[in-house]
Amino acid sequence: MSPRDAIAVPDDDYRLLMGVLPEPLKAAVRDLSPGEVLEVVMDLGRPPEARLTGRVVRLSESPITREDLAHVLSQVGTVSEDNRAGIERTLHRVSAIRNRQGKVVGLTLRVGRAIFGTIDMLKDLIASGLNILLLGRPGVGKTTKLREVARVLADDLGKRVMVVDTSNEIGGDGDIPHPGIGGARRMQVSRPDRQHDVMIEAVENHMPEAIIVDEIGTSAEAAAARTIAERGVQLVATAHGNTLENLVLNPTLSDLVGGVHTVTLSDEEARRRHTQKTINERRAPPTFDVVVEMVSRDEVLVHRDTAQSVDRLLAGENVGGERRQLVEGQVEVKEEPRAVAPLPAPPSEPLAPAASRAAPRRGGGAQPGLRQGTTRIYAHAASRDLLERVLRDLGPDARVVGRLENADVVLTLRSRANDPKLRKIAEKTGARVLAIKRNSSSEMRRVLRDVFLIAEGVDEDQVREAVMEAEHAIQRVLSEAVVVPLAPRPPRLRKLQHRLVSRYHLETVSHGSEPQRHLIIYPLGALVDIPREQQEMEGEEGATRSQPPMYG
Length: 552
Description:
Distance between the termini: 66 Å
Structural class: alpha/beta
Low-confidence stretches: 1-10, 348-371, 532-552
Number of strands: 24
Strand content: 15-25%
Shape: elongated
Mean pLDDT: 82
Oligomer: single chain
Helix content: 25-40%
Radius of gyration: 30 Å
Strand order of the largest sheet: 9-8-10-11-7-14-15-16-17
């Protein structure tokens, strides 16, 4: 049985929710299926609505009045400082919207449910005793799963469980907890800003083996969570954020997954790692051993080793993970790929002896056809001093060498590109020959930006993302001979993607208008239908179709 089939709102509970509504709305709500209703919305001066799974139903054409709002408030518990109230011994929640004078002008009545079987996808993790953090957008079922975790830990695994219930969402309103948490005990919180104090109090006073906390959202609560974890108590909690990346970028909550700090590396270490000198690293061991991204009620992405996942994320790599889905009552597990397959070498271009992809540098991406580590450049009939200044300005992992035989890349004037001696040595060593029209810094910058995939004035993360997307798309086009559209990008990033695609002699066409303009990559020889309005040059991006690079 799937969790959706297991949804059970007891008739008594549902009648209690309907009982707080004004008389005209009771009949309308009664006609709806209890299992589908998510919440009832009442806003002053607007018709009331019921939000169901996948649709919205208008309950009445008559707008809500202040009397309607007052009637509901008189039937529920006291509205707390966080503008929430409940119905005693139920899981229903009533949330208020106030105007600038503090008067209630809107209400959201959310149907609370205890769903048995909803953590089948996570049961092995819960039983492991590890600290688990649930992430997900509002309404995806984090609190519902947390409630079921409390019941399983207390009843099925026989642990001493304490629920820190800040807004009475987990254990329901009133002094007696809802049966949905099983034998777990519950501590209520007098004010939202005291949640961290109650978390510590629960550990110090009641000797729990596991603590359940909903919505960790402040630095004090994050610190309390770390204190609990360090005392050997299993902690299962939810936090604001959809993905692990959201959490890492959140300065308030990043401590939950180890925190982030900036480290400056030595020149030697930066070359060894193939990174910039200034990088971000994880600061400390994470509070939570496992992070679960809730994609939907029936699908999650599990990061079993939080420390390893955060390290991969900060290194600019694919985080991977374990995707779990509930399909017809059975849990299906699939490993997410951790990296995109490497691209083959670009055709018809001389390669260095140990051809491999160098790591991304400042404002740049991969460098197909260049050696691992620092790229060695020789200036042939071009100014060495000028080349060194341009390299310092652009910042790629490259240096100028004094002998042609030691070079991976040769920069030369177009008039000297066919020099027999140059060609002979380049063919022998596999060096790549780049031709410039004239001996100027602007010409050198143009060619080197193409080689190192540098987009000046663009955030490094955006450049890295655009390059990785293009690489993945090129891999698919080459291996599967399919047409692959890319995501919309600003002109400079589209131009960078154009450069990368052109190295593989594939067709690429720009489609759409700003800000949705994007590239589509076609297999070699494919019939490309270019709309008339797309056939013009695109200014900064260049021609709509990729052109081969101007290499000697």
